[in-house]
Design goal:
3 helices; globular; seven-stranded mixed β-sheet; 359 residues; mainly beta; 2 domains
């Protein structure tokens, strides 16, 4: 099982322990997709007002060799203000995983008293808040309850037709946290397009989700999910001048840095108001302006990157225009999906994806 925390990612506890000891297996870099993976979860409002309905949108991809298989996506009900704000304190609720909802999207209503019912902080500089957790499970099999042990912190498992519990290649579980503040808000990063080799990619060739998670986005919100999940990416006609830009030769060195490098990045305009948010919570605590921290995680199911994580904006030094990376093609011909997920440090995320053809 992979255990995903948004905002964060780590592998199941036993695997982490082996890696730390230095005697475990070598894992693929997180940017290289070869199995079932959850790439990101977007909230339509990263900070939700009391009483607001929060909409969640998951981007996942099954990059395994069995990508045509059926995959189950489920969401728990919300857990509000658990003891000490600890996500695992939610597991004491016996009804948390009863009636889980399915699909790439989910929603819940934040209580109107999510903030007021909590005691105020002892230090007035600390902003009053409430917190909600929603858990998810993505399974290439059947979801089943499992006992919680020292090695299994999550009370849901995924088993195959023979009844065997599946591991990290076939089962991803985790949670998303949503904060509520009395007067603070946050926007998702605004990603308007994709650039390959310094040129904008035609709108018909990329997908993006940069706004409200429940909106009918004509630029491709739903299409983005259609290009992930278990569906095959669209083919590219390299003889079409409008698509030829996305065709690259294979490289015998299989994604090594000795391969030709192709510049790639999402289009993120620093002048857009959504990309200029201040960290109001830190500002109140520190008594001075604090900008958001923003970064980009790159993913692909074929090929490699020079740098899979790039800084977009620093809280102190501000915007970084050099936020792109270089893509190295694999040796095997075929279609390669490339994703760029733009994060901020307050729960916001926007993404864009493009398909390349390796010849």
């Amino acid at each position: 099982m992979q255990w995903s925390m948004f905002e964060g990612w780590l592998r199941a506890l036993p695997l982490v322990s082996l890696a730390v000891l230095g005697c475990g297996p070598d894992f693929d870099p997180p940017s290289e997709l070869h199995s079932l993976r959850v790439l990101g979860i977007q909230k339509d409002m990263p900070y939700a007002d009391p009483g607001q309905t929060v909409h969640l949108h998951m981007l996942w991809e099954d990059a395994s060799e069995h990508a045509a298989r059926s995959v189950v996506v489920r969401w728990s009900g919300p857990c509000f203000d658990p003891a000490a704000d600890l996500y695992y304190a939610c597991f004491t609720d016996p009804n948390l995983f009863t009636g889980m909802t399915g699909g790439d999207r989910a929603s819940f209503a934040m209580p109107k008293d999510i903030i007021s019912r909590r005691p105020p902080p002892s230090d007035a500089k600390n902003a009053r808040y409430g917190i909600a957790y929603v858990f998810f499970a993505v399974c290439a099999g059947e979801l089943v309850p499992v006992p919680v042990t020292e090695e299994t912190a999550f009370p849901i498992g995924c088993r195959d037709e023979s009844g065997k519990l599946l591991g990290s290649d076939d089962f991803v579980a985790g949670y998303v946290s949503v904060y509520s503040f009395q007067s603070f808000h946050n926007d998702n990063p605004f990603v308007s397009g994709f650039e390959f080799q310094g040129r904008p990619v035609a709108s018909a060739s990329f997908c993006t989700d940069h706004g409200s998670a429940d909106a009918d986005d004509p630029t491709g919100t739903d299409d983005c999910q259609a290009r992930a999940g278990s569906s095959a990416p669209r083919d590219i006609d390299c003889d079409d001048p409008k698509q030829a830009q996305l065709c690259v030769p294979s490289c015998a060195a299989d994604g090594d840095s000795s391969c030709p490098a192709y510049a790639i990045r999402p289009t993120v305009d620093k002048s857009n108001v959504s990309n200029q948010n201040q960290d109001d919570v830190s500002k109140q605590l520190l008594g001075r302006n604090v900008g958001e921290q923003m970064w980009i995680d790159y993913y692909t199911d074929a090929g490699k990157f020079k740098s899979a994580v790039r800084l977009l904006s620093d809280a102190t030094s501000g915007w970084n225009d050099d936020y792109g990376t270089k893509y190295y093609a694999p040796k095997a011909p075929g279609l390669a999906r490339v994703w760029a997920l733009v994060h901020d440090n307050r729960g916001g995320v926007g993404w864009a994806g493009v398909t390349l053809k390796v010849q």
